[in-house]
Amino acid sequence: MTPADDKKALHIQITQPASKQSHFSLDINLQLPSTGVTALFGPSGSGKTTILRHIAGLEVSNSSHIRLDDTIWQNSQTSLPPHKRPIGFVFQDANLFEHLTAEGNLRFAMKRAKKDQSVISYHDVIRLMDIDSILAQYPAQLSGGERQRVAIARALLIQPKLLLMDEPLAALDETLKQDILPYLEKLCRRANIPIIYVSHSLDEVIRLADHMVVLDKGRVVEEGDIHTLLGKLGTSFSRYQDASVVVVGTVTRHSPEWGLSWLTIGNQAIAFKQGNEALGEPVRLRIQSRDVSITLDKQDGSSILNRLTAVVDDIERDPKDPSQTMVRLMIDNTAILAKITAFSAHQLALQKGQSVIVQIKSVAVLS
């Protein structure tokens, strides 16, 4: 179902002229899915946080229209104040009450929650964010990652109909980011409310998002399902230095002696570094175009484990760097991008519809 077909979608129409605070005008018209994670992606100053603030009612424009389900939050006649909008908001900084323990912060949120609306239980939140052992501690005693996990739990316990997350990992160092990402992944997969996630990190977006809106200077540049958008040629992503695709499949085999797992897509499988994935569990992998090579036939004696049959679907020479060519390949119904030299594409005589072998290093597959 596309966002436009979903009568329960979040409708956002914002028109805001440039001001002293905002050096760009904002002009967007979006209808977003009512399930899953929508990422607002773009460089700093593209309007991502401003959109969240409008949705939350922290900024108001009389020419804007914001509606969730059948309830209007903002239009020329109506403007619900922030405390009457059923949202949870997670900021870059955890913004916890320093005089309250972690549990005290959560209990404060529960007092604000609407009694007739239950999105998630207290015990489910504690388990999901794995914070039972730190509930008695004060914010000053917590690490940055722990503080942010408590902040996410607090936002959920308001029992929101919509969760807004404004670059929740931006204030963390790389180690803490990697610590908290698995918790965000669990949240994004299990939450039964729509989530709007703001980021300028493509890694985060690929791991978490289902739908993506690309912004630049207050305008929508591209929008769509993340798997479709990343797998297209001619987009800003296909010309990105680390152009990647998201591959979703089921874990069908573990080889603990080699530290590998296998993900099945269609009738073929991709080996990747084993983590905590359970057999039968759906997993998404990121495959960068620069880690994919193409050969015309299977070669024995290669160190590359992943050699899959694919069909050339599209070919585009980079308009900014004519020495490079991007090839879109289909493995069953899954798109893979390969960034190769234009000379290699010429030597292989690649053509649309041609059957080839895609080679992907297992150590390069990112889970």
From TrEMBL:
UniProt keyword ATP-binding, yes or no: yes
Keywords on record: ATP-binding, Cell inner membrane, Cell membrane, Membrane, Molybdenum, Nucleotide-binding, Translocase, Transport
Record has Transmembrane helix as a keyword: no
Pfam families: ABC_tran, TOBE
Cross-referenced PROSITE patterns: ABC_TRANSPORTER_1, ABC_TRANSPORTER_2, MOP
Residues annotated as domain Mop: 301-367
UniProt cross-references to PANTHER family, sorted A to Z: ABC TRANSPORTER I FAMILY MEMBER 10, MOLYBDENUM IMPORT ATP-BINDING PROTEIN MODC 2
Name this protein carries in UniProt: Molybdate transport system ATP-binding protein
Organism: Marinomonas alcarazii
